[in-house]
Structures are given as structure tokens and as C-alpha cells.
Amino acid sequence: MSSDEEIPASPVVRRMASRLGVNLRNVTGTGVDGRIRTDDVRTAYNQWQTARAIAASLAGTSGDAGRYPLNPAVDTLRSSDPQRYHAALRRSSAPTLFAAGDLPPFTASGMDPNVLRQVPWQARHPVAAASSTAEAYALVQRFSDPVSGETDAAMTYDTHPANVDYQRRVQTWVADSLTDDQLHSSLFGQS
User: Is residue 80 a contact partner of residue 167, using CB atoms and an 8 Å limit?
Assistant: First the structure.
């Protein structure tokens, strides 16, 4: 790990970062040879402020509250075809969106995993994998729009490998609950 002296920034930039509370290790320099400029510090500070504002607005979100369902495919099956849902549930537990559950135990950025309930399921893996809090909250802000968020998330991340895997696991779970005759009829439209 490099020392603070190795960070390419002038004394003016260092003072500005110190005054604003910006850690220069988390700033990407846009100057020559990656040198950190005052604009880079301002950008990092603004992203941090935006992330704090979004976090504050979502702070009231409890583990059970959210704009979107925890396990959308399973919830849809439960409401649209309760008989098939219960048949599948009798054979095995429902697949979850993440390997450890419908929400991950932690996110790469350190953001509270419950905030993921504010975005459509297609965006949850990318938000959870965001490396910085500012990046994670920027994605939350982008996809939490009730008008365009779900459509935008589906168009952007529907083919994300984790989402494809989730859809495959749900389809397999449902298919495994069917008898051979039901599966044949479901796949080939014959009775």
C-alpha cells in the first residue's frame, strides 16, 4: 500500500481535501499521469454529499419495507399460480435472489443491504457489487425512480450473469415441482 506522500496531489489539493474530509486514496485523478486536481476533489466531495443525502432519505427503510419485492419471481408465482407455488415449495425451498438470501449479508461498498429494496431486482447485484458508497448510492438514485427505474434496470441488467442465474434457478425449481405429464404439457402445450 502506498503512503500519502505517493498520492499525486499538490499541497493546495491536499489542504482542500483535508478541509472537505475527502480521502485522497479514494479520488481518481484526471490530471496528467493521474494527478489529482481540485476539480477531482470537488467531484469526490459532491458524490459523497449525494450519497449521504440519499442514505439519509432512505434511513427510515426497515428490513421489511421497500418499494420492490424481495424475491420477485417467486412472489409472482405465489400470486399468479398458488397451486404450482405450493407444489414447488413442498419439494424444496424457494430459490433466493442472492446466494445467502433475498438480500446479501453485506455489500462491497458497505452500504446497508436493506437499501437494495429501493431498486428493482435486476439492479440489486450491480448495486451490491459497487466498490464505493458514492457509486452504490448513485445507482440507487438512478434506479429508484418509480417511473423509469424498473424499465431502465431491466434494460441495463437483465442479462447480468447473477440475474440470469436467478431466473434459471427459479425455472428449475418450478419445473422440478411438476409431474412428468405436467412438465411435458407445460413445455409442449399438450395435455
Answer: no
Cα(117)–Cα(127) distance, integer angstroms: 11
Q: Give the separation between CA 33 and CA 145, rounded to whole angstroms.
A: 38
Residues 156 and 126: their CA atoms lie apart, in Å, by 10
Q: How far is CA 57 from the centre of its chain?
A: 17
- Please tell me the distance from the alpha carbon of residue 109 to that of residue 145, in angstroms, as a whole number: 21
The phi and psi torsions of 23 (rounded to 5 degrees) equal -80, 115
Model pLDDT for residues 109-146, shown as the tens digit of each residue: 888 888 888 889 999 999 999 988 888 888 888 888 77
Q: Does the model's pTM come out above 0.70?
A: no
- Residue type for position 167: Q
